Amino acid sequence: MTTIMIVDDYLPSHRLMSFVLNQYGYTVVTALDGEQALNCLATGQVDLVVTDLKMPRMDGIELARAIRADERYADLPIIMVTGSVKEQDEVKATGVGVNAFLTKPVDSDDLVNEVDRLLQRTPPQTPQQA
């Protein structure tokens, strides 16, 4: 099963993205900041990271930089989500190796399409029925 890690300190975003990705057959693990995410990466298999840009202790840019610096995770796909519409944030994220950049509120279809694209998975036509 494919595992997605959602890293976001805002619980409603966590819940929404988790719900959407679960509906499409993904297993979801969560972390509230970059430090928790790095600890989670060290203890289990994660196939893709969806991270917020702005978080306490370690933000999304620092997390992406740390992931890319570790050869075990150098090819791990990263999607950054943020409420920021500043072009320099997207440029900075791309510069540290983020693969996709989405703005909040995240459209469910956009999220699933980016996850599927980065994992090279053919998307299902509809969410799985619970």
Summarize the topology:
Blueprint: E1 3-7, H1 11-23, E2 27-31, H2 34-43, E3 48-52, H3 60-69, E4 78-82, H4 87-95, E5 100-103, H5 108-118
Parallel strand pairs: 1-2, 1-3, 3-4, 4-5
Commentary on this structure:
The mean pLDDT is 88. The chain is globular, with a radius of gyration of 13 Å. Helix 3 (60-69) links the parallel strand 3 and strand 4 (78-82). It has a five-stranded parallel sheet, with helices on both faces. Helix 2 (34-43) packs parallel to helix 3 (60-69). The chain has helices at residues 11-23, 34-43, 60-69, 87-95, 108-118; strands at residues 3-7, 27-31, 48-52, 78-82, 100-103. The chain has one domain (3-118): 3-Layer(aba) Sandwich (Rossmann fold). With 130 residues, the chain is of the alpha/beta class. It contains five helices and five strands; from the N terminus they run βαβαβαβαβα.
Concise overview:
The protein is an alpha/beta fold and 130 residues long.
Main attributes of the structure:
single chain; 130 residues; alpha/beta; Rossmann fold; five-stranded parallel β-sheet; 18% strand
Helix proportion? 40-55%
Please tell me the CATH architecture by its name. 3-Layer(aba) Sandwich
CATH level-3 fold name: Rossmann fold
- The CATH superfamily appears as Response regulator
The main pleated sheet reads as: 5 strands, parallel
Rg calc: 13 Å
Low-pLDDT sequence parts: none
- Content of β-strand: 15-25%
Cross-sheet strand order for the largest sheet: 2-1-3-4-5
Going by helix content, strand content and strand pairing, the class is alpha/beta
Q: What is the top-level CATH class?
A: Alpha Beta
Order of helices and strands: EHEHEHEHEH
Mean pLDDT: 88
Strand elements, count: 5
SS summary, helix count: 5
Q: Gap between N and C termini, in Å?
A: 16 Å
